[in-house]
């Protein structure tokens, strides 16, 4: 697999899943990643947080798209932090910074964000959303990926309490796999992608 940064800049958004170091850590799959990035409306100078970064697949693509900006990946699990480091080195993204801690710790010291991706909250969703809103620039966007109805509902409750505009889409991906001489469809977990913006 090519390791030249200029090559990967031509591949985003939508770097294939098998290009990333993965281990047993959950990863935002390619098709979900593409829609998530689209909802973030990234631009070259963007300041981005990725909270609950997992393997860092979303952080990597965000850093490639925001190549003149900065991306901070928050991840509390040591094995995931090591994978993010490996992926950062492999894709040669020097504008990606890793914070090995649980949000919202560490957010206060960062510059205001244009885009905040939230993929994991460790049970502290409300607290993290409140802190993220304080750190968000005017016209900034918070993009939450939810795999449970509870996360979806809590995010919607927060958006209404804070009088935020919101949009929700569900991405349900089914991939064809070859099994012997046959081809079968395998469904991935559907993901609700919630985008929050100030009115």
Relevant terms:
single chain, 199 residues, alpha/beta, Rossmann fold, seven-stranded mixed sheet, two-stranded antiparallel sheet, 6 helices, 9 strands
Outline the structure in words:
The protein is built from six helices and nine strands. The strands form two sheets. The chain has a seven-stranded mixed beta sheet with strand order 3-2-1-4-5-9-6, with helices on both faces. Strands 7-8 form a two-stranded antiparallel ribbon. A hairpin with a 2-residue loop joins strand 7 and strand 8. The protein has helices spanning 5-9, 30-40, 57-65, 78-91, 125-135, 149-161, and strands at 47-51, 70-74, 96-99, 113-118, 136-146, 164-171, 174-179, 182-187, 191-198. Helices cover 32% and strands 30% of the residues. 40% of the residues are buried. Helix 5 (125-135) crosses helix 6 (149-161). It has one domain: Rossmann fold (3-Layer(aba) Sandwich). The protein has 199 residues and is an alpha/beta fold. The longest helix has 14 residues, at 78-91.
């Amino acid at each position: 697999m090519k390791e030249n940064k200029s090559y990967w800049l031509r591949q985003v958004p939508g770097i294939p899943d098998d290009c990333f170091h993965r281990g047993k850590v959950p990863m935002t799959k390619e098709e979900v990643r593409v829609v998530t990035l689209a909802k973030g409306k990234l631009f070259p100078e963007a300041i981005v947080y990725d909270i609950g970064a997992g393997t860092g697949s979303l952080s990597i693509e965000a850093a490639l798209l925001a190549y003149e900006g900065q991306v901070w990946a928050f991840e509390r699990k040591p094995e995931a932090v090591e994978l993010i480091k490996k992926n950062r080195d492999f894709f040669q993204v020097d504008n990606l910074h890793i914070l090995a801690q649980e949000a919202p710790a560490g957010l206060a010291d960062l510059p205001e964000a244009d885009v905040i991706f939230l993929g994991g909250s460790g049970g502290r969703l409300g607290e993290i959303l409140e802190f993220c809103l304080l750190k968000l620039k005017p016209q900034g966007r918070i993009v939450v990926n939810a795999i449970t109805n509870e996360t979806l509902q809590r995010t919607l409750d927060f958006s209404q309490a804070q009088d935020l505009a919101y949009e929700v889409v569900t991405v349900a991906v089914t991939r064809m796999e070859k099994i012997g001489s046959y081809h079968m469809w395998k469904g991935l977990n559907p993901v609700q992608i919630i985008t929050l913006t100030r009115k």
